[in-house]
C-alpha cells in the first residue's frame, strides 16, 4: 500500500522522464551527406541532424546503415537507416531512432585529413611530412586545431604500411620485388627526371656470384659521364646482409666528377675471384656510359681485382 508522498514522487519521476524523451526528439532525419571517414577512402553517412552511420550492406537498390555507436559497448545504439544506391537521391529513412543527442562535428577536419592522406601516399610527392602538413593547413585553417601534425603523421604511416610492398626477408627477394611491374615506382631514383635502378644476378660457371647489382645514375647527362677520368673501385667492405649467408663482400664503384666522388654501382658478391670481377665489369661497361679509353682506375690492393680491371 503506497502513501500519498510516494505517489507524488512517482508522478514527478514520470514527468521528468517525459521531459527527457521530448529533449531527445530534436527533429526528423530526412536527408544525408557523405563525409570522409578516418580510414583511407572510407565514407560516413551523416544525416541532417548530425547523426552518423556506417554502411552495413547493399541489397538491390537500397543501402542499409547502422548507427556509429553500434560498435561501442558502453554507448550502444540500435538505430538503423536505409538510403538509395542512387547518389543523387539523398533521402534517408530511419528504422530505429537514436536515444542520444548528436555530437558537434567539425566538417573541415575530414577534408583536411583526406587531403593529407592522399598526398602522403602519392609516390610523386616527395615533400617531408611536416612540409606537407604545413601546406595543407593553409588551405584548411579551421580544421588545424582539431587535426594535429602528430595525428596526420600517424595516419599516413598506417596508410603507407598497408599499400607499400611488404618488407623482403633478404636482398634477393628485394631485387625480385623491385623488378615486378607492380613495384616499378619504388625502383627509381628520386631525381628529376628519375632513373631506374638496374638489378640482376650474375652467373659465372653455373653459379650465381652476384646477388644484386644496382646502378645509381646520379649523373644522368651522358656528356657529363664522358668527361670522367677517375674511377675508384673498392671491394673490401665486409659488412653484408646476414641473409643469404654466403655473401662475401660489398663492392662499390665511384666516379670523380668536378672533384666530388659519386657512388654509381653497388654489388653484393658471393665470390672475390678475378673471373667474377671480370664478368661484373663487363656488365658495368654496358650500363655505365664512361669513356673507358681515358679512365684511370684506382682499386684497393687486391690482386684479383687489379687483374680484372686490367
3D structure, described in words:
Helix 7 packs across helix 8 (303-309). The chain is of the alpha+beta class. The longest helix is centred in the N-terminal third of the chain and has 21 residues, at 4-24. Residues 1-23 have low confidence and may be disordered. It has helices at 4-24, 108-120, 129-139, 149-163, 171-179, 222-226, 274-287, 303-309, and strands at 32-36, 43-47, 52-59, 62-67, 80-84, 92-96, 202-204, 207-215, 230-237, 249-257, 260-269, 296-299. The protein is elongated and about 90 Å long. It has eight helices and twelve strands. Strands 1-2-3-4-5-6 form a six-stranded antiparallel beta sheet. Strand 3 and strand 4 form a beta hairpin. It starts with a helix and ends with a helix.
Order of helices and strands: HEEEEEEHHHHEEHEEEHEH
Which structural category do the helix and sheet elements fall into? alpha+beta
| Tally of helical segments | 8
Strand order of the largest sheet: 1-2-3-4-5-6
Distance between the termini: 115 Å
Mean pLDDT: 78
Instruction: Report the portion of residues in β strands.
Output: 15-25%
Core attributes:
310 residues; 6-stranded antiparallel beta sheet; alpha+beta; disordered N terminus
Summarize the structure.
With 310 residues, the chain is α+β, with helices and mostly antiparallel strands. It is 31% helix and 25% strand.
Amino acid at each position: 500500500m503506497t502513501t500519498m508522498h510516494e505517489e507524488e514522487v512517482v508522478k514527478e519521476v514520470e514527468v521528468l522522464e517525459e521531459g527527457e524523451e521530448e529533449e531527445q526528439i530534436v527533429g526528423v532525419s530526412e536527408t544525408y551527406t557523405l563525409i570522409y571517414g578516418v580510414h583511407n577512402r572510407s565514407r560516413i553517412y551523416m544525416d541532417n541532424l548530425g547523426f552518423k552511420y556506417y554502411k552495413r550492406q547493399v541489397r538491390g537498390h537500397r543501402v542499409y546503415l547502422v548507427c556509429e555507436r553500434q560498435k561501442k559497448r558502453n554507448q550502444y545504439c540500435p538505430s538503423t537507416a536505409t538510403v538509395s544506391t542512387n547518389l543523387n537521391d539523398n533521402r534517408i529513412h530511419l528504422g530505429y531512432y537514436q536515444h542520444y543527442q548528436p555530437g558537434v562535428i567539425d566538417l573541415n577536419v575530414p577534408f583536411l585529413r583526406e587531403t593529407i592522406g592522399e598526398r602522403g601516399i602519392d609516390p610523386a610527392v616527395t615533400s617531408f611530412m611536416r612540409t606537407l602538413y604545413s601546406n595543407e593547413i593553409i588551405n584548411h585553417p579551421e580544421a588545424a586545431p582539431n587535426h594535429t601534425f602528430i595525428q596526420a603523421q600517424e595516419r599516413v604511416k598506417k596508410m603507407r604500411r598497408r599499400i607499400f610492398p611488404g618488407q623482403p626477408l633478404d636482398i634477393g627477394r628485394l631485387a625480385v620485388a623491385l623488378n615486378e611491374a607492380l613495384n616499378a615506382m619504388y625502383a627509381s631514383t628520386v631525381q628529376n627526371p628519375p632513373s631506374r635502378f638496374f638489378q640482376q644476378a650474375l652467373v659465372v660457371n653455373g653459379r650465381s656470384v652476384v646477388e644484386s647489382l644496382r646502378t645509381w645514375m646520379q649523373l644522368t647527362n651522358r656528356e657529363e659521364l664522358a668527361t670522367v677520368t677517375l674511377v675508384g673501385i673498392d671491394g673490401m667492405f665486409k659488412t653484408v646482409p646476414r641473409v643469404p649467408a654466403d655473401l662475401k663482400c660489398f663492392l662499390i664503384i665511384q666516379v670523380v666528377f668536378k672533384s666530388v666522388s659519386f657512388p654509381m654501382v653497388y654489388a653484393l658478391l658471393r665470390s672475390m675471384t678475378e673471373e667474377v670481377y671480370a664478368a661484373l665489369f663487363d656488365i658495368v661497361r654496358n650500363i655505365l656510359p664512361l669513356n673507358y679509353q681515358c679512365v684511370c682506375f684506382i682499386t684497393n690492393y687486391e690482386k684479383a681485382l687489379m687483374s680484372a680491371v686490367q
